[in-house]
Amino acid sequence: MNAIKEARRYIERRPPEDPAARTLAALVLALETDRGFDLSSLYALDYKSFDLAIEVLRDWRLDRYYAGKAKLFDLSMQVHESPETPAALAASSSADATSSS
Questions:
Q1: Which domain holds residue 95?
Q2: Out of 26, 49, 90, 94, which could bridge 20 as a Cys pair, Cβ 3.0 to 4.6 Å?
Q3: What is the rounded CA–CA span in Å between residue 46 and residue 77?
Q4: Whole-structure pTM over 0.70, yes or no?
Q5: Span 48-63, pLDDT tens digits
Q6: How many folded domains does the chain comprise?
């Protein structure tokens, strides 16, 4: 099962005051908002919850990698299909965004 889905289910099934659920929720919020997270709080988790937190970190990193890969693929397709240079494509995209504002 996908660790992110498993973490969601884990948090949903626990009472809001459950320390492990709160720690996992704080980890997810930190990852999504690029804010700090106290790693020492992971050591307070039982082994199964700790392992889930580590798997969430792995999945999150992979998801970011794939999001970056998708952006690279999109740009590569634009370059491949256009006779313009990549810099010209970027400039025209910026100009289009400015003129539509």
A1: 3-99
A2: 49
A3: 46
A4: no
A5: 999 999 999 999 888 7
A6: 1
